[in-house]
Amino acid sequence: MRLRTYATTVRRVLRQLLNDRRTIALIMAVPALLVTLLYFVYKDFPGGDALFDRVAVQMIAILPMAVMFLVTSIAMLQERVSGSLERLWTTPLHRADLLMGYATAFTVIAVGQALVLFGVCAWALGVTIAGSWAWIILTALLDAFVGVAMGLLVSALSRTEFQAVQFMPLLIGVQVFLCGMLVPRGQLPPALEPVSQVLPMSWAVNAVGEVQAGAAVTQGLVMDIVILAVIGLVLLTAAPLTMPRRTR
Asked: Can you list the residues of the chain whose pLDDT is less than 50?
C-alpha cells in the first residue's frame, strides 16, 4: 500500500460521501431514529424502561454494522458498474490502496454515527448503563468498521448492486438471530451455539452487555473488543484478494 495513493483515495471517498446528503442522512440519522422508535414501542409496556435500556444498548451493537455494510457494499458496486473502478486501475492505484481508503473514509463517517447514537441514547432517551459510555462508543465504532469490511468483501464477490443487497439477510440477518439479543447464546441449540461464536455481532453484543452490567473493565470486555477488531482486520485483508481488476 502506498501512502500517497491511499490518502488520495480517502479524500476522494470522503468528498463523495459528504456531497451525498441522502447517504449521510442514512448513516447518521437512521440508527438513531430506529432506537427512538424503539423507545416509544416500550414506553407504555410494563417494565418497559429496563427492557428498553437493555435492547437499546444492544441495538448500538447491531445497527452500525447493518447500515455500514449496506452503504459500503452499494457504494463500491457503483464504482464498478459506472466504470470508475476500471479507470482507477489504469493509475498506480493498488487494491489495498482502494479498499483501505474506502475503509478509512467510511470509518471516519462512522465516528459521527456512533456519537449521534450516543447522544440520542444517553441524553435524549435517558438510557442508563453501569459502565462508561466510551466503551459503548468504541464498540459501535468497531462494529461499524466490521460492517464496512464485510461490505467491501461482499462487493468484491458481487457483480451487481442487487446481488450485494441479497447478502444482507444472509450476513446480517443470521447474526441478529444468533448474537444473543433474541435468545441468550448459552441457550441456543447445540448446533447453533458454535456458529454464534464466530459471528462478529455476537462479540459486539457481549461487549455492550458487559458495559451495561458493570462499571469494571473486565477481561471479557477487553477480549470482546480485541476479537471484534481482529475480525474486521481479517475481513478487510481478505477483500483485496477477491477484488477483480475488470467490472465484467
From this structure: 248
